[in-house]
C-alpha cells in the first residue's frame, strides 16, 4: 500500500528503485548463495535479509556547528524547524556542493530514481535525505565521514528508504529497498569476501560479519565503525520529523559544555528524543597523520589548535567546527590559505583523519 505521507515524486522514486531491485534479485540470490556456501555458516539468504530489516539502523550523520546560508548553525535550524533538511534546501554539505538543477547531485538522483525528482513542480523540500544503514550498531553511525553526530531513525522509516551499496557520488549499480534488499546484500558480501574492509568491519571475513549481524539482537557495538569510504548509503524519502521519526540524537562528547551541546540537548528535550553520547574521536595536535589526507592537513591542524583550542584541548570535532565557522564568518582571516572552499575542504579532511586515527575522548 502506498505511503500516504509521500508526495507523488517521492512515491515514484521509491517504486523505481524497488522495480530495479526486483529485476536484479534473481542474479543477486545466486551471488548470496555462493558467499553463504563459502562462509562457514549455515545461514540462509532469507535469514540474513530478515536480520537487516530487524537490526539495521538508519543513521544520518551531520556536523551540528556548521553554518547555513542564513548564518544559523545546523543545530539551531534543527531546534527551530524540528525537521532534517536536504542539501537542496540547506545549501551546505559535508560532501560535494552539487545539489542544484543540472548539478552532479541532481544528475545522480535522476539516474537513481528514474527522473522522479526532475518532474515539473517538484520542490527542493521533496528531495531525499542521505544517511547510511548501520548494520552492526556502531556508535559513530553508519557514515561518520559526514558528521560527528547523528540522528538514529525509528525502524518505521526503513519502509520509505532506498539503499545503494556505496555512496551515490560513485554512481553505484546495486540498489534495494528493505523488502527487496538482495542486490545490496550481494554487493556487500562480495566486497567483504576475503578482505573485510567495508562498513567499518576491518578484519572480519564474510562468516564473522554474518554471525555478528545475525547475533546482534539490537545489541549496540562498543567499537566505532570509522566508515569513510565504504558503507551502505540510505536515501530517505519524505519529511524527517524529529518528534515522529527520530529514535535518538547521538552526539560527539567534544560538544559537552558548549553552546552547540546545549542547543542539541534542548532539541532532544523539546522533541522527546533521547540524547546519547558516543565515544568521540580526538588526537594530539602533533599526532595528525601527514599522508592519509595529504601534507596540507598537519599544518592546518596546528594553526587551528593555536588559534581556537582551549588549554589542554586536543584536536576534536568541536575544535574543527570553531575553525569552520571562522572560515565562513571571517574569510579574510584565512585568505593566505587560498579560497574559502579549499580551506573548508581541508577542514573536512582533517575530520577524516580523526575518524580514521582518533582515539575515544578522555573520560
List keywords for this structure.
363 residues, alpha+beta, two-stranded antiparallel ribbon
Unreliable stretches: none
Within the largest sheet, what's the order of strands?
A: 6-5-7-3-1-4-9-10
Radius of gyration: 20 Å
What percent strand? 5-15%
How far apart the termini lie comes to 49 Å
Q: What structural class results from the helix and strand content?
A: alpha+beta
Shape: globular
* Secondary-structure element series: HHEHEHHEEEEHHEEHEHEHHH
The residue fraction in helices comes out at 25-40%
The beta-strand count equals 10
Any overview of this molecule?
The protein has 363 residues and is α+β, with helices and mostly antiparallel strands. It folds into two domains: 270 residues, no CATH class; 73 residues, no CATH class. It contains twelve helices and ten strands. An eight-stranded mixed sheet has the order 6-5-7-3-1-4-9-10. A two-stranded antiparallel sheet has the order 2-8. Strand 9, helix 9 and strand 10 form a beta-alpha-beta unit. The chain starts with 7 loop residues before the first helix and ends in a 6-residue tail after the last helix. The model has no long low-confidence stretch (mean pLDDT 91).
Quick synopsis:
Helices cover 39% and strands 12% of the residues. With 363 residues, it is an alpha+beta fold. It folds into 2 domains: 8-277, no CATH class; 285-357, no CATH class.
What are the SSEs and their pairings?
Elements: H1 8-37, H2 45-55, E1 57-62, H3 74-81, E2 83-84, H4 87-90, H5 104-112, E3 129-134, E4 149-153, E5 161-165, E6 175-177, H6 182-192, H7 206-214, E7 232-236, E8 240-241, H8 242-245, E9 246-251, H9 259-270, E10 275-277, H10 297-308, H11 317-329, H12 340-357
Parallel strand pairs: 9-10
Antiparallel strand pairs: 1-3, 1-4, 2-8, 3-7, 4-9, 5-6, 5-7
